[in-house]
Amino acid sequence: MTDARVLWITGGGSGMGAAVAVQAATDGWTVVLSGRRADRLGAVAEQVRAAGGSADVLPLDTADAEAVATARDVLLTRHGRLDGLVLAAGLNAPERRWDDQSMADFRAIVDTNLTGVVAVVDAALPSLRVAGGTVVVVSSYAGWSFQPGAGVAYSASKTALASVVRTLNQQGAEHGVRATHLCPGDVATDFLDRRPVVPDAAARAVMLQPEDVARAVSFVLEAPPHVRVDELVISPVAQR
Ligand SMILES: NC(=O)c1ccc[n+]([C@@H]2O[C@H](COP(=O)([O-])OP(=O)(O)OC[C@H]3O[C@@H](n4cnc5c(N)ncnc54)[C@H](OP(=O)(O)O)[C@@H]3O)[C@@H](O)[C@H]2O)c1
């Protein structure tokens, strides 16, 4: 069993998940990165190692519950423990309104944003109970307050994450398990390329950067074990 705390990060190959990986490794965690694109995971793992940290990759589609359970088994075989989750895997589609969405997109978004998050927590929970683990669910500003542009599936799935976190906290507390509903406003990542109107460089420059969110996640993960951050909303000053 590794001495270092082990953090499983979904969506770890880009954006906020990648920034969290770099920050958490600096804080002393061994980071295990999951996402569908193995090359992206490998590049982030290399970046972590180049900075002196410890990283592993587990390519995974979190919408596939069987694959999630298998990945959990591989993680535990390799590392022997699991102390934290950062669930940043997320999807949206440009066609997101009632008048242009497809049910195929709706299902794919809910499968990743909601069911995929629940699947990873479900698979990890026995180990998290042993460790007194910490779960950070990367939800959205749209999971905290209604955002007209966010879309039907995205708003519904992210809003539901608030309940996922609350039930987890209510039932996990006796095992020292704590969870955070993290609600970022606009963050300059590839995610914005899926908006119906893609923001330009000037718009992205006044948004949060992935590293801003990684610092907030670090604050949550490094809080003393008796401290729980139930919900954390973080937005750029420019957010409307
Ligand atoms: N950017 C924003 O303004 C913003 C604001 C609030 C909240 N968020 C949320 O923040 C989270 C991270 O997004 P980001 O902004 O950092 O964008 P991003 O770089 O596009 O990250 C999303 C990540 O999720 C992974 N992913 C998507 N579907 C997956 C699946 N089924 N299984 C495994 N991995 C999957 C993607 O990797 P693969 O494609 O390789 O699988 C990607 O690495 C998302 O949950 C998003 O909803 C974003």
What would you note in describing this structure?
The protein has one domain: NAD(P)-binding Rossmann-like Domain (Rossmann fold). The chain has seven helices and seven strands, in the order E-H-E-H-E-H-E-H-E-H-E-H-H-E. The chain has helices at 15-26, 38-50, 65-79, 103-131, 152-172, 201-205, 210-221, and strands at 6-10, 30-34, 54-57, 84-87, 134-138, 178-184, 231-234. A seven-stranded parallel β-sheet has the order 3-2-1-4-5-6-7, sandwiched between helices. Helix 1 runs parallel beside helix 2 (38-50). The longest helix is centred in the middle third of the chain and has 29 residues, at 103-131. The protein is globular and about 50 Å long. The relative contact order is 0.15. Bound molecules: NADP nicotinamide-adenine-dinucleotide phosphate. NADP nicotinamide-adenine-dinucleotide phosphate binds at residues 10-11, 13-17, 35-37, 40, 60-63, 88-91, 112, 116, 138, 140-141, 184, 186-187, 189-192. InterPro entries: NAD(P)-bd_dom_sf (IPR036291), SDR_fam (IPR002347).
Task: Give the secondary structure arrangement, pairings included.
Elements: E1 6-10, H1 15-26, E2 30-34, H2 38-50, E3 54-57, H3 65-79, E4 84-87, H4 103-131, E5 134-138, H5 152-172, E6 178-184, H6 201-205, H7 210-221, E7 231-234
Parallel strand pairs: 1-2, 1-4, 2-3, 4-5, 5-6, 6-7
Helix pairs in contact: 1-2, 1-7, 3-4, 4-5
The structure holds NADP nicotinamide-adenine-dinucleotide phosphate.
NADP nicotinamide-adenine-dinucleotide phosphate binds at residues 10-11, 13-17, 35-37, 40, 60-63, 88-91, 112, 116, 138, 140-141, 184, 186-187, 189-192.
InterPro entries: NAD(P)-bd_dom_sf, SDR_fam
Family: Belongs to the short-chain dehydrogenases/reductases (SDR) family.
Keywords: Oxidoreductase
